[in-house]
Amino acid sequence: MNRVPPHRADRPVRAGIPEHGRVPRYYAVKAELFDLVENLGEGTVLPSERELAERFSVSRVTLRQAVSELVLEGKLIRRQGSGTFVAPPKLVQPLSLVSYTEGMRRQGVEPTRTVITIEEISADEGLSRDLMLEPGDPVVHLERVLLADDERIGLESTYLSLRRFPDLLEKLDPGGSLYACLTERLGVRFAEAEERVETVLATPREALLIGTNPALPMLLLHRVSYDVDGHPIERARSLYRGDRFSFVARLHADR
Fold it and tell me: Distance between CA 23 and CA 17 in Å, rounded?
């Protein structure tokens, strides 16, 4: 067995460079730049483009490509007129019945929301199937921008049956936790949820609301939540910035 240099378990094996060693020059620079970023620490401004190009013996065009990929991955952040900085760690939301509010506060982050839309709509075929309604039944649609310490990180659309929750809008603080309102004021008991996560690009409208680059990869979460009797409570579509957000789940073996 050939011995190879040790690698960190949270990093790509051999920094993602194949055994034959033939990779685009920008990628090799990216790997070196990532090591530099880790040593600089959160919030530190990156050295100038000229200095880095000389340090890695590459053209500025090659360096810019390496920096751009680290920006897309959330390792660096550009600030107009200020420079490029080492980004803070990504926020982590558990894939569980923990609310967005609770998940953020566990990390010492204050969650807030900006309301974009509160409206009554008629259930289409998909909504009626997911919420066990008849097509055309009234549904409350709540759309809100999600913030963490006043930084926009996501956009959430939630749909609930108006017949099941006729006084929802009277009891809900639109900028507060919907989960808390349902459990504490309306007596709902969450039991399980079905979730699907995929990567997408934001639409122009979504990018504008979240305040992000439309080319930035986003994490899209679809969820239908159920109560203890197996009845659906809500259907949610949550879009999160891929550079600032990640999900974690604890898995258990079947018994």
Answer: 7
